[in-house]
Amino acid sequence: MATDHRSAAGTPGHAAPGGPSAKSAGLASGWWKLDEKTRFSLLLLAPSGIMLILFQIVPILIGANASFRDWSLYDPQRTWVGLQHYLYILTDPNFLYLVLPNTLLLMFCSVSIGLCLGLALAHLLNRHFIGHALVQTVILLPLMVAPVIASMMMRWIFNDQFGVVAAVMDALGFGSIAWLSNRWPSFAIIVFADVWLWTPWFTILLLAGLRSLPKEPYEAAAIDAASKWRVFTHVTLPMMRPIMAVCIVIRSIDCFRTFDQVWVITGGGPARQTEVFSIYAYTEAFVYLNFARGTAAAIVGAVIIGALGWALYKTLNRFMEVSR
Amino acid sequence: MSAATDTGYTPPRKGSFLDALAPGGKRAFLFLCVLGVLLLFAFPVFWLVLTSLRPAWGVYYVHRGLEFTLSNYAEVLEQGVVVNAFINSFVIATLSTFFSLAVTVTSGYMLSRFTGKLANAWFGTIYIFRTIPYITWVLPLYFVTQWWGIFDTYLGLLLPHIAVHICFFSWLMKGFFDGIDPSMESAALIDGCTRWGAFVRVALPSALPGIAALSILCWLWTWNEFLFALILTSHNTPMITVVMAQFVSELGTEWNLMSATAVMAMVPALIVAIFGQKYVVRGLKV
Questions:
Q1: What is B76-284's CATH topology?
Q2: Which residues have CB under 8 Å from B162's CB, separation 6+?
Q3: Cβ contacts of A43 on chain B, cutoff 8 Å
Q4: Cβ-based neighbour number of residue A231 at 10 Å
Q5: Subunit contact A54:B109, Cβ cutoff 8 A
Q6: Run of H or E residues at A244
């Protein structure tokens, strides 16, 4: 199976224990029939593989099984109901017109704002100025703060009676906004919290990318007296495309499953208007106590993000091929 | 053409717009940028710390009064559930960091050093499972851990926490080992080392800096984790993030106490941000 071992091509069978003791059981003899490299790689893989099977694959299979049954408290039989839960979710106006648009909009806003801000900050950090270390520390901070804590901060800052934003807006003569009791203001706070939490991640990765770029194209551009903006759009951006693509794909996939921020800031409210996909599945399972419908929703979401992630990856790949 | 040069007219040097606006405008602009960044990223944290130091009656009149107190912290620490939650979070974060690194270091090594069907299959698997949202497998785990009798125990939270990092860490570990020259291990093998010995004695020490960086991040991510703790624990094993989220919904008016709890929960993050920067930056390289 494992055909090529780069490190030890020259020592075939050197450390291989022969199989005299292995004739005892069929499984064991099958094990010793494998060549020594395969056995070693299987052993290396075993701990991770077993954990993955027990705690991800088995739960997903159980959840998939449950999603075809009536799993409510009053039905101990767990009656098989086929695709009923999936049909319910795919025709639920809450899911179609609130949850899905919210999730995708959050994904789009958070990733695009984070990428632009991250690129700007990476440029800022890529030059020398007094206080560089302080700025870098401050930018790194949100990366390590728990999303729950960050969301609490946002709730407190945007508190509509006693929050500092309300105080400032009052002082400036604007009326106060009831931030958390309307759909779009609360959604804006969620986006802000997400951007605050994840821009540093973009910054670090893009800064590493900037520092690894070759110097020659910049020297050529300087000789041609290109303006800074043209250098940015014609030299930096094309060379940064691969790492930006990786950032966008990873971050989009992670953003799709956002839970903490939304749960703490709005809890999906007001009136389910800021629910995102993870909250929807959780609410169906633990608030409406319909476990089967919750898992069905979770599986629908997994399929959507799987397809979306794959499409995004392909698009960005093609986009990079063309521009190269 | 030559007339222009004869008159001694030199076109103004093409400086930036900001320099034209005011002398030193560029430096001022840079300064403003830096200030804006500091305000955007540090202000929420600063505000939380400030609120945690205010007496209860002062919280709501922030722009007046200058009394500060530490009594919020004392009051929070008197609550048994908060102290328990801190202890639990610490234990789970530490144990899960140790075990998830131990489990993924071998599979990452395998990905880096072997090619063939098995390695390709594993790489594809972790790629797919990285995409699946947590809720898809944590929801069923709520029942699975109950059937196995480990719901709301350390074990019931620790094992999923180890599992969640497998995909991403195997990938990062592969990166660490890819950066190490495999010829040292071949030399060790020729000298009579076993494959396991070559891995433990030669490859592993060289990968330690990367692994150390990853361990810091892993500890923080587990400490900060919310969804698993919310679904897989109840009253017996309170975790700090869940306790704080409950504060927000239950005693939504006592912001001074909530801030004090949050600031204490933020201490590890602050320590790492200030002292462990370079490790974090190294560990994050994708």
A1: MetI-like fold (1.10.3720)
A2: A51, A55, B96, B99, B100, B103
A3: 106
A4: 16
A5: no
A6: helix A237-256
Burial letters for B148-183: b for 16+ Cβ neighbours within 10 Å, e otherwise? eebbeebebbbbbbbbbbbbbbbbbbbebbeebebe
Alpha-carbon distance of A257 to A251, in angstroms, equals 10
Alpha-carbon span A150 to A153, nearest angstrom: 5
Helix (H, G, I), strand (E, B) or coil at B20: helix
3-state secondary structure of A49: helix
Give, as one character, the DSSP assignment of residue A4.
E
Which structural domains are found in chain A, ordered by start?
A: 26-66 (no CATH), 84-323 (1.10.3720.10)
pLDDT digits (tens, 9 = 90+) for B201-210: 888 998 888 8
> Per residue in B242-253, pLDDT tens?
988 888 777 666
Is the bond leading into A270 cis (omega within 30 degrees of zero)? yes
Q: Does B202 or B59 have the greater pLDDT score?
A: B202
Whether A256 and A308 have beta carbons less than 8 Å apart is answered as yes
B194:A15 CB<8 A: yes
Residue of B nearest to A117 (CA): B37
Q: What tokens does A279 get?
A: 């909250």
Chain B hits for A47, CB-CB cut-off 8 Å, are: 102-103, 106-107
What is the rounded CA–CA span in Å between residue A96 and residue A101? 7
Looking at the DSSP bridge assignments, the partners of residue A69 are: A80
Average pLDDT over residues A245-271: 89
Counting Cβ atoms within 10 Å, is residue A173 exposed (0-12), middle (13-18) or buried (19+)? exposed
* Residues sharing a CB contact under 8 Å with residue A122, sequence separation 6 or more, in sequence order: A202, A203, A206, A207, A209, A210
**Does ipTM exceed 0.90?**
no
Residue spans per domain, chain B:
10-73, 76-284
Determine the Cα–Cα distance for residues A214 and A217; give it in Å rounded to an integer. 7
DSSP A69: B
pTM of the model: 0.85
